[in-house]
Amino acid sequence: MVSGSEIEMFLEREPKFDDIMCSLQATSKQPKGIIKETKKVVALARKFNDEVVRPYSLELDKTVQEDPEFLAWDFVKKANEWGFYTLWIPKIFGGKGYCMSSMSFFVEEIASACLGMANLIGVHYLGVATLSATWNARLINKLSRETVEGERKGNPCLISLAITEPGAGTDVEEVDLVDKGDVTCYAEKVDGGYVVNGRKVFISNGHLSTWHILIAYSDLKNPSENTVVLAVKNGTKGFSFGRKERKMGQKGCPASELIFEDCFIPEENVCIDPDQYGTLSRSAKETAMQVIDYVVSGTRAGVGAFGTGVARGAFEEALKFALETEVKGKLLINHEWAQTMLAEMYKNVAVSRLAYAETNYANGMYGFYKTLQWKPTYYYTRCLPRFIADKVISPWLDKPRATSLMRKMSLDGQTDSEIHRTSGWASLAKFVGTDAGVKNCQMALEIMGQAGLRHDRRAEKCLRDSKLLQIYEGTNQLNRLNLFKCLIGRSYPQVAVFQE
Amino acid sequence: MIASMNAELKPFEDLAAQFAAKELSSKREEHDAYPFGPFFGDVLDKAYEIGLLGITLPEELGGIGRGIGALSVILESICRVDASLGGIIFATTVAQQIILESGSTKVLASVTKNAGNAGDFLIAFPAFNNPSEIPHLIYARKEKSKYILFGELEYVVLGGIAGHCLIPAQVRGERGYSFFLVDLSDKNITRSEPVLSLGLHACPAVDTKFNDVEGILVGKEGDGNLSFEKTADRMHVAAAAMSAGIMKGSFDEALAYSRERFQGGREIVNWSEVRMILSNMAVTINVSEMALRQACRAAEENEAGWEQNALASAIYIQGAACDLTTDGIQLLGGYGYMKDYGQEKRFRDAKHVQALLGMVPMKRLKYIERVIDGVDR
């Protein structure tokens, strides 16, 4: 009927089978424990929504409208008490080690009640992800354990990512653009470390974070080959906070300006730099892009989940309104057109969820958490006694050999096809989920009419919150181009992306 | 420009544009801020002095006696800068027109001719509802020759700053509803603080409670819906003009920013994807302008089917404005989401304006209902 070589040949045709059926292939390969863990974190998120998020979300939004300088420390402390900032830090780094894929489902839940608060939790893992994508075992271990300690002492220790600059947003997310971009955050190599000058803007959770993973450049004329990733702690001389942006929505989560003036960062806080790229098989430019792709493959799926969550929140508000409101003499829910609109909104949620779940499967099979979701590693880490992680593994992680091994496995060990698959799917999940988020919010307001305009009915807040999702973590335009580059254009030699 | 259809409208367009540039532009952010300030304060008084609060009101009643065309060009020009003042003009004009449609000219004259300032002149109105679509929470009982109102009414636009209010209420035992004019200084009316809402922050709305308040019947008992629908038919054009103005403001800012902002080494206006988005915006505005001009002309000249033109224009243009202002933010990236620019406000205002005169799906159903019933010409 069809020979083995034919099967291989036909499945390599576009669309490649490996690109389109990540979930099918993951079914037998991923540990069953993931299901149990995911159910647990979803239940946990629902409990947290009932007890903390819903009672406070409108008040927080209103408070920041009144006082843009307000910082949601109370909420961050509460999330810290509930253990959310270490829930997805692997056990070997001192965290609780829940499977990474469960985070998307968790943030969808929180975002369905308040997108700003979902950011206050989820954006911490953007910092963690960036640090992790440098595969610097010592620094991952150090910062993770500070976060764990902060949880134990009731002093939240969040990590932010500082990448966007006043003159460069999209440019800093693509190495093909950054050399032409207007980047100004300069990290000058000096004895014992780097001296940084420059500004970063729109840094989510900046003012609330203790550590900041800073993307800077040691040569501003050729940044793509000179990307430096640094860990900067609050209190470092030469580092200060600037303004908090006055945003339309997601008001609970500050967007901060970070200012670096002759800020010395010692070598021990260098996550990765051009000297270290030299030890890897890919070029410095390719490695910088790979690090970015590792980050965004995970975090764009998370933003897709944010979009799914706000789409669901809008749907739930519209449904509640339709169930209790009479229009033209009968309940709105019994108007056929309203039922159809609600079904469309439900579909938007379901399709968005499928998109980020598929990306999770891709990341579990070929990307960020491939090693962690490999069955032997997965079950070994679940059985690992805490004292062994702390007393035996942790000291080993501080040795250069640990970083070298992790980079060998994760950076050199990842194929170009795997990078394309995970990055392409993450972009798809991002713009599917976030476009659905905005669309559902608009539909909710149409269904609710006058009531939808009011702050106290939540739907208008959902709309304001949702719009940012189409912008951050790469605009949806950039993500469409990235999908094209990763899953379409790569097969055609005549294609040039970002070269117009 | 709507004014291109009729040279007589050009002075009104210029007047409104100059007024907006002088009085609204520099204070857009201040007027939009929460906690709410004194709203437009002196701006409203100036608008009142030059007749912007009585554009379609006959001159003998204190207005400037112009038609829907003049109202539309003025609203478009004002909303291009700040839609909140447009919302105020719209709400009070709807109230004035309902009273005129009801034939209660004397009742209206008692408000407008005796007004000493903008607040006295304004008539509050729940402009984001079609009263026939929702259950009535305000009731009226007749006591001899007087009507006594009681119940609660949400989201009365201008309820916190106007001297009077036009209220839809159901007379006990009667079908349908009627309109009543109420003096808002009545102590038996409780008004909330201005309701925090999505957009039009300087066009405040309040929740109200009526505890046996005397109301003056406007028109005949039970004729409220007739007056509302006749007024709404014409005012849909004005609502569409507001959205058109918001769209133009969004496009202006997006184009200007695209020429200045660099990405990948050149102005973003030179990237074809950006041009595609700008083109979609420009085409939408062009088509909306054509629809609006036709709707204005048809309404002014009472052409057959003008009501359907008006409604279709409103449905199309208001929806288009919501999509266009989303792109308007997108082209500014993160900056578009911040209060430093006007794009996020236009995004909110566009969605807010879409809800004027009732729920969007009900407007769509009304349109097709008229086609099916053969009212369409």
Main attributes of the structure:
heterodimer; A: 500 residues; alpha+beta; Butyryl-CoA Dehydrogenase, subunit A, domain 3; four-stranded mixed sheet; four-stranded antiparallel sheet; 19 helices; 10 strands; B: Butyryl-CoA Dehydrogenase, subunit A, domain 2; five-stranded mixed barrel; globular
Tell me about this structure.
The complex is a heterodimer of chains A (500) and B (377). Chain A is built from 19 helices and ten strands. The relative contact order of chain A is 0.13. Chain A has 500 residues and is of the alpha+beta class. Chain A has two domains: 20-156 and 287-491, Butyryl-CoA Dehydrogenase, subunit A, domain 3 (Up-down Bundle); 159-279, Beta Barrel (Butyryl-CoA Dehydrogenase, subunit A, domain 2), CATH 2.40.110. Chain B has three domains: 2-121, Butyryl-Coa Dehydrogenase, subunit A, domain 1; 123-223, Butyryl-CoA Dehydrogenase, subunit A, domain 2, CATH 2.40.110.10; 225-372, Up-down Bundle (Butyryl-CoA Dehydrogenase, subunit A, domain 3), CATH 1.20.140. Chain B has helices spanning 10-24, 28-32, 42-49, 68-79, 83-101, 105-112, 118-121, 224-260, 272-300, 306-330, 343-354, 360-372; strands at residues 123-124, 138-143, 146-157, 164-171, 178-183, 189-191, 205-218, 262-263, 266-267. Chain B is globular, with a radius of gyration of 21 Å. Chains A and B meet through helix 4, strand 9, helix 13, helix 17 and helix 18 of A and strand 8, helix 9, helix 10, helix 11 and helix 12 of B.
